[in-house]
Amino acid sequence: MELRTLRYFVAVAEELHFGRAATRLHMSQPPLSRAIKQLEAEVGALLFARSPSGVTLTPVGTVLLDEARALLEHADRVRVRVSAAAGVATITVGILGDGTDPGVSRLAAAYRRRHPGVDIRIRDTDLTDPTCGLRAGLVDIALTRAPFDETALTVRALRTDPVGVVLRADDPLARRRSLRLAELGDRRWFRFPLGTDPVWQSYWNGGRPREGPVVRAVNECLQTVLWNGTVGLAPLGHDLPPEFTVVPLADMAPSPVVVAWNDGDINPLIRSFAEIATAAYRY
Question: Model's pTM, two decimal places?
Fold first, then answer.
């Protein structure tokens, strides 16, 4: 059994739903289902009883859940002890958004100068989790955008960006100097999957429920605009292919760039990252 597969199993066992577990793990559902079926084949027994409303653990699954949790906790302790013995400090940073942002470049350079011996691991995430895996313990700190549910998190704003609506270049509204949300009320919008943070979903849908295709990544958003004439929101100042345009929205609150970490985390590398990020984004 691979540790990764056991992490998949624990996520499904805790969520009791493949779709929610896939969202939590930031993966699509089919490979998750295949991984669990393979694990059941290795164990030689069903781990879940499946139904249209979700899943429940079988007696074998209940036993494996206890053992898997213990194994994963032990693996994490081993990783920490080995890293400490080797003198290698690590920090995992989740990033959502444009990696070419000058603020990111300044932050990376400044952090390397301050901590030349630290192993910095980057986890690039899609649009379904604005915390970049913080709550699941996949990252130590997130460089992302708000707003989202900040429960049990510390969030520090770095910058705010005005927001516009992404349109196809030949859209009748594409030549406007600015728009208001009410002018887009009859349009189809791209949406995030069910289970996405409702605060995050509401912001990017202009504060009301919308109808339209479900997307997970920036490129999927652009493709739905290109192929279907769908609309959606994006921060201004990012270069897009010539097939698209972004028209500023006059009545939309700006989008904050933030750093976030779990409340009570006393890792000094995290606090240093937040301080350096604050300075890097002042320019």
Answer: 0.68
